[in-house]
Amino acid sequence: MTARKKEGVPGTFEEAMRRLEKIVEELENGDVPLEQAMELYEEGITVSKICAEKLTKAELTLKRLGKDINGKFTVMDEEE
Amino acid sequence: MDARQALSVTEITRRIKLALESGFPSCLVQGELSNVHLHTSGHLYFSLKDSGAQLPGVMWRSRVGTLSIQPKDGMKVVVSGRITVYEIRGNYQLDAQSIRPVGVGELQAAFEELKAKLAAEGLFDSDRKRPLPEMPGRIGIITSPTGAVLQDMKNILSRRFPAVELILIPSSVQGQGAAEQLARAIEDANDYGTLDLLVLARGGGSLEDLWAFNEEIVARAIAGSTIPVVSAVGHETDVTIADFVADFRAPTPSAAAELIVPDRRELLETVANSWYRVSQSVLDIVSKQRERIQHLLSSYAFNRPIDLFRQQSQRLDETQRMLHRDIAGFLGLWGERSRSLGLRLLALNPRLALKRGFAIVRKDDAVVSSRRALQSRDAVEVEFHDGKIRSTID
User: How far apart are CA B104 and CA A16, in angstroms?
Assistant: First the structure.
């Protein structure tokens, strides 16, 4: 999947959703030239796929916060 | 031989009854319940015992209904009542007026005292409550690592919104030292940072079981948290000090799991809807472009090589085909997973929206999407699913 680097690939689901909202807004409200529209379109498709995949494929991860002997935090996968 | 007159069994029993019943007309007895048995008659039979003795007891049906607790074997209780003698069997028993768990009175008083104190300090004020993040990505959960609560919440979160990282900050939630551990866990979570939300969770239990959540040290830790805190302690009817201080009180841990994350099905619809709108806007832009070219092509003044515009036109055709193919592909992505979503996407099609009673307003062939675009006496065209009418704005 190649996302437009201009905006960067949204890391979290929330960022992706925000970006998608923004794209819709720009396309619907602005008088966007065709070239830019196509760029936004491609980005919109990429981002909606990211969102959809995160929602349909993501599996919740459970981790456990602990501290090592030096008092530094450790995050480890929690065993079922 | 003994010169004293022998008493009849009835007579001595009557005297014992008199002595006992007048000797213990009202008493409080503390002990552990055993042999608790609710008879089909509605009367409750039990034994009260400690290491040295036992005392049979009964609570008559009319009072059983007033019990605020469910008496169970092993429960430590204080029973108020009187001693009665059942002459026919020669038994004495405790006729119970009330049964309540040991210590509740004292705990209740401590609860009210701390509640009043913290309220006076403003720790429960509504303007202290922070809003919860709409889509928390990392959720810290402070609970027992072995309890069912963790598993329940994990299951609900997985179903509703799997794009979540759940970070367990283990703590005991009951008994000696639990309050200190809970407070430490809240502080650790804050020191660790990068959490969007903290949930304090514990399943249902007696007032004593939940007591750690009524301790001042926990209340202060919650108040000091920079991460928003959701309290999810006990059953719906259990209220703890932690509930008052937290930014949000969930009635139960399961309810918390439902409340802190959005529903993925709704979000999927939002995504699909956005996607549809993106495609639709681009298709609109493409067709506008096409009209422009067609207009140029047909223009009388036009004398440049026509090929250039044919190419443009062809490019637009290709773009449009690609868009349609993408739309089909996107729908295919949902196909197996969610039929209804595909149907909803179709429902988003403006033509179908018209059938549901929506109308499209146009002025000079352009869609009017804002009232600001219209002025008095503007001529507009209103499109319904079965045709158009012309109209004038008042």
Answer: 51
- Burial of residue B188 (number of CB atoms within 10 Å: 0-12, 13-18, 19+): middle
Shortest Cα distance, chain A CAs vs residue B165, angstroms: 5
Q: Is the pLDDT of residue B362 over 90?
A: no
Tokens at B122, concatenated: 């403003």
3-state helix, strand, coil in chain A (%, to 5): 50, 15, 35
Give the residue from chain B lying closest to A57, CA to CA: B162
Q: Identify the residue among A15, A50, A56 best suited for mutation to test binding to B, counting B beta carbons within 10 A and taking the highest.
A: A56
> Do the beta carbons of residue B54 and residue B94 sit within 8 Å?
no
Domain count, chain A: 1
Q: Do A14 and B168 touch (CB under 8 A)?
A: no
Dihedral sign, Cα of residue B185, residue B187, residue B191, residue B193: positive
DSSP B260: H
Closest Cβ–Cβ partner in A14, A41, A63 for B137: A14
- Which residues is B84 bridged to in the sheet? B93
Are B187 and B287 in contact by the 8 Å Cβ rule? The answer is no
Contacts of B278 in chain A (CB under 8 A): 23-24, 27, 40-41, 44-45, 48
* pLDDT beyond 70 at B356: no
Q: Contact at 8 Å (CB) between A66 and A73? A: yes
Determine if residue A34 is left, alpha or beta; phi over 0 gives left, psi from -120 to 50 gives alpha, anything else beta: alpha
Chain B, window 301-360: residues with a beta carbon less than 8 angstroms from a chain A beta carbon = 319, 323, 326, 330, 333, 337
Q: Global pTM?
A: 0.58
Instruction: Please state, in angstroms and as integers, the Cα–Cα distance from residue B332 to each residue in B208, B270, B345, following that order.
Output: 55, 17, 12
Asked if B380 and B362 count as a contact pair (C-beta separation under 8 A), the reply is yes
Q: Which of B157, B264, B274 sits opposite A48 (nearest CB)?
A: B274
Q: Residue B171 in contact with residue B268, Cβ under 8 Å?
A: no
Has residue A38 been placed in a domain? yes
Q: Does B163 touch chain A (CB under 8 A)?
A: yes
Which pLDDT belongs to residue B308?
62
Domain assignment of residue A17, yes or no: yes
Structure tokens at B84: 């009665």
Q: Is residue A2 part of a domain?
A: no
CA distance B243 to B208: 16
Write the CA distances from B382 to B368, B376, B378, integer angstroms: 10, 16, 12
Range of the structural domain that residue A45 is part of = 13-77
Q: Give B338's pLDDT tier (boundaries 50, 70, 90).
A: very low
